[in-house]
Amino acid sequence: MLVLAGEAGSGKTALLEHVAADAKDFRVLRCTGVESEAELPFAALHLLLHDCLDRLDLLPAPQAAALRAAFGLAEALGVDRFLAGLATLTLLSEVAGDGPLLCLIDDAQWLDRASWDALRFAGRRLGAEGVVLLLAIRDDDSMTDLRGVRVLGLSGLSQAAAAALLAERAADLTLDLRDRLIEEASGNPLTLIELAAAARSGDPAVGGPPTIGTGLSTTARRVLDAFGSQVDRLPARTRLALLVAAAEDTGQLGVVLDAVRRIGLGLGDFESAERARLVYVVDDVVTFRHPLIRSAVYGRAPAADRVTAHRALADSLPESADRRAWHLAAAAGGFDDEAADAMEAAALRADRRGGYAASAAAHERSARLTADPILRGRRLAAAAMGARDSAQLDRAASLAQEASAMTEDPRTLAKLAWVRARLEFERGTPRHASEMVLAGAETVYDSDKEEAARMLIEVVRMAYFADEAPGLARAAKLIDALPLSPDHPLRPMLEASSILARLQLGQPEGPLLPPAVRAIRPERLV
Questions:
Q1: Spatial separation of the C-alpha atoms in residues 39 and 60, rounded to whole Å
Q2: With 0-12 CB in 10 A as exposed, 13-18 as middle and 19+ as buried, what is 396?
Q3: Suppose 129 and one of 93, 94, 157, 168 were both cysteines; which one would form an S-S bond, judging by CB atoms 3.0 to 4.6 Å apart?
Q4: What are the b/e assignments for 83-116, b being 16+ CB within 10 Å?
Q5: What pLDDT is recorded for position 244?
Q6: Is 378 exposed, middle or buried (0-12, 13-18, 19+ CB in 10 A)?
Q7: End-to-end CA separation in angstroms for the chain
Q8: Three-class DSSP category at 55
């Protein structure tokens, strides 16, 4: 596994294309991270592996079940992230059994968290399977965890290489203008190409002082400005059609066309942008030539036009689509019950697929759209739980603190105690964490037996790492008294937790220990 890191326009995509062209003996699987799908769990992994799903039956049953649940092919309470990563590794190895396999992933900074975790898990364990996993990512991305992954940084072009590129693409430039463009591009090949194209078209902004935008390097901002100048020269109808395509950046032509027709536009309104080579409409997909073109289109559009575009897109998507919920949220102008409810539904779907980072984002967005402070507090609490389960502990603590001030509901407060306990556990105080979760379990014990069961299992798990856990006797009694049916999914974990609690309390002969366990004698195992 190798990650290519470089700023926007540094040539990462060109390198991936070159590798793909040279990999004549490889089967190639490809996907590109999409910003609008960064909160949709396992969206990128599904895009990469969708041509291989006919091989799921060849995987061990638990692994196949994990991927089916992740991709929405089967109902499940959640997705085990370890099993999802292991299943990804096994599936890639299975496909590589037919011949070497090359997986290319562009714009990896926009992969959803669940897909990235599964791919990193698989990539770190690839050996002699005949699989190459190559990703390209912007080096200004600070959210993607690259620990344990080989990263190759792309440096800029030398002056000689930049001059050679200009000689190939814009040989008619004057020497003075050529030197100015090379200096302004600072080694960024796409910046150089776009500035040269703008200079040849007579754009008066070329050669002026660079402008620096938030979150973008100087060279990336120069590319953005060059693209923006091209966008500004398009007809107003074309700019609005492009805005719809930029807002729905999956590029699905059917969805985009349905949305543009809702605001009185049509396919013909893309023609000017196609002639300018800003977008391509091929194979039922609208594709921007570079992600920064999309950024230029969206960033330069008036706020009212952006709301119109998102509303039209939301109306073009089915009610069960997660993207519809995000479009509704983007179109909201303050509190909005419809958008808030849609975001909560998307969050719950993410929970069922094990996309806890996506769930946290959707629950939080739902809360921000909610006027009722009690309901907002409950949704913030759910966001805190999702952040906790996706190991975003600082974010979980912040959300939990905000939610605590907005609710007096015992069940919600118990969940928030569980969130704060997880943070305490990670900080190295397992005893305190165990006691916090136990207090929460006692709060909901009479009103929500299933939630209490989950919390009591966590009490024992956390206490296992503590030097002393005086609350375990109480936890064991509560577990014994839980009236869950013998075939309840949590029953095996509860029984195991009861056994573990009694062993830690020095009660190996407790009533819950089955005969086979009580019969074990350490001296006979030597």
A1: 28
A2: buried
A3: 93
A4: bbbbbbbbbbbbbbeeeebbbbbbbbbbbbbbbb
A5: 95
A6: buried
A7: 43
A8: helix
Distance CA 306, CA 247 (A): 8
3-state secondary structure 111-154: CCHHHHHHHHHHHCCCCCCCEEEEEEEECCCCCCCCCCCEEEEC
- Three-state secondary structure readout of 208-236: CCCCCCCCCCHHHHHHHHHHHHHHHCCCH
Structure tokens belonging to residue 182: 């090379």
Closest to 407 (Cα-Cα) out of 384, 425, 388, 387: 384
Q: In what order do the strands lie in the sheet with 2-6?
A: 27-32, 101-106, 131-138, 2-6, 150-153
- Per the rule left: phi > 0, alpha: psi between -120 and 50, beta: everything else, 321 is beta
Token pair recorded at residue 139: 């080096």
* Residue 208: predicted pLDDT: 38
pLDDT at residue 3, rounded to an integer: 93
Largest CA distance in the chain: 91
Q: Give the SS3 label for residue 401.
A: helix
Average confidence (pLDDT) per 10 residues, the chain, 526 residues: 87 92 92 84 92 92 90 75 91 93 93 92 88 88 76 88 86 77 79 75 43 47 77 93 90 92 94 91 86 85 94 91 92 93 93 86 94 92 89 87 85 84 83 88 87 90 80 87 85 86 72 51 43
Q: How many CA atoms lie within 13 A of 437 on its CB side?
A: 28
Distance CA 243, CA 26 (A): 38
pLDDT for position 524: 43
141's tokens = 């991305």
Model confidence, pTM: 0.69
